[in-house]
Amino acid sequence: MNRTNEQVNLSNPSSLPFRLLGGWIEQPSDLQPKLEGSLTADVIVVGAGFAGLSTALELTARGAKVVVLEQEFGGFGASGRNAGYLLGSMGIEFEMFAKRVGIEHAKKFVNFYDEAVCYVERRMIELDIDCDYNPSGIIRAAIDPSQEKWLRRSMKVGHELGSITRFVDQDEMRARGIPPAFLFGSEQRGGTLNPGKYVSGLRRAAIQAGVKLYEKTPLLSYSEGSTITCKTAHGSATAPIMVLATNAFTPQLGLLRDKIAPIRVSAIETQPLSPQQLASLGWHGREGIITPHLTMESHRLTAHNTMVLTVKKLNYVYGSKTPNIPDDHAYTALARTLHERHPSLRGLGIKHCWSGYVSVAYDFLPVVGTTGAHQNIIYTAGCTGHGLATQSMMGQLLAEKIMGTVNPILTALYHKTPSTLPEPFQWCAFKTAFTAAGVYDRLTDRKALAAHAK
Ligand SMILES: Cc1cc2nc3c(=O)[nH]c(=O)nc-3n(C[C@H](O)[C@H](O)[C@H](O)COP(=O)(O)OP(=O)(O)OC[C@H]3O[C@@H](n4cnc5c(N)ncnc54)[C@H](O)[C@@H]3O)c2cc1C
């Protein structure tokens, strides 16, 4: 149920053009077959996003026979719907991390997030994936002076943990042509890419490498033991090891409900900017911008000259469900944000709106481990809204572990994940937290608007 009306009317959110698959990706023309009959493999990977495809590629390169089961097609989940920020440790809440696991352990998490950026940059070259990567750096930019204190404190704690960032002052922001709504910020290496092209490149590389990818093949159930048999609608696959790379969908398989919650994240994409609009914007470096709001905003230009904004309003669906439906409140908030931060683009139409699900642990840390009587079910989830780099690199870490070498970076990620609340408490807790964050962020927005109006 795509909606195609391009006449944006913020008082009528259902006029916003919702797209079921997001703005970056189509169902592939070479859809891989459904699984029919029974087969065996060394490893079964469930889910073909960054994590699943990366794991399958890394395992195949090490000589394993790998089967991937995907309920729709490679890139259907968050991997094909995100904002395309290849971002390292700057995306994480340093103070909370340090309090939760201690300074020394937190340093290792920071190292994982930053190494993961290098991993993806290397893989794009090794696998010859052209995904419009612009290594522009990412700036976490304040929209109001009241955000400076938090920004500087976060940078200071980050530096203590080994996260390399630099402060970009107002003069430099203006000299670089960053839109004037963004006053100053903290910058880290990384950049923006087209996530649809990146995940499709992983999918193509996996098929070429000999990974048996079965699409439109949801895992329906599995039996545990020294070997695991995965049942699908028309067949079954058996292997000594199963990797669950199903991210936010995992609780629906009856696993990780006590560790992660699926959170809905939304995005809007504008119509292409005209050459005049691009010139008036003057944003030469096209740096990816995120803000230090409690619920952040992200603003970026794409290689096809549209602008993509994400987040601003998060949502949680009762019972950890993940329906692929519009989130009109989020799209309206993003459209309003577009007009507030980029007044020179007033009148620019919205081309697409979409949503996807990330998985979040209560400590916002990655959730990786093994389960089952034989500890041969491996799972990876919980990289919140920063899984492009991390879930890609997880592929290498999991493949190494399966083939018998445990990378110290993986060992460092093991920790006790706090238990989630049962319903209805989890639903109430998320709704309350998101509403409170929204009220606080709106106050910041109003202060910024008032300052700009002077
Ligand atoms: C709007 C939005 C913006 C974001 N922006 C960024 C960003 O800029 N930078 C960043 O780092 N991160 C971002 N993220 C987060 C990032 O996209 C995710 O962390 C990452 O894609 C997770 O990858 P994954 O492979 O673990 O999961 P997914 O991509 O969700 O893959 C899971 C796969 O499992 C499949 N599956 C589920 N159940 C079954 C089943 N029963 N049988 C078979 N297959 C199944 C799904 O169809 C899906 O393809 C964003 C997310 C969203 C939604």
Automatic annotation (TrEMBL):
GO-annotated molecular function: oxidoreductase activity
Recorded superkingdom: Bacteria
SUPFAM superfamilies: FAD/NAD(P)-binding domain
Key word Oxidoreductase present: yes
GO cellular component: cytoplasm
Pfam hit, one: DAO
Residue ranges of every copy of the FAD dependent oxidoreductase domain listed in the record: 42-400
UniProt entry keywords in alphabetical sequence: Oxidoreductase
Protein's UniProt name: FAD dependent oxidoreductase domain-containing protein
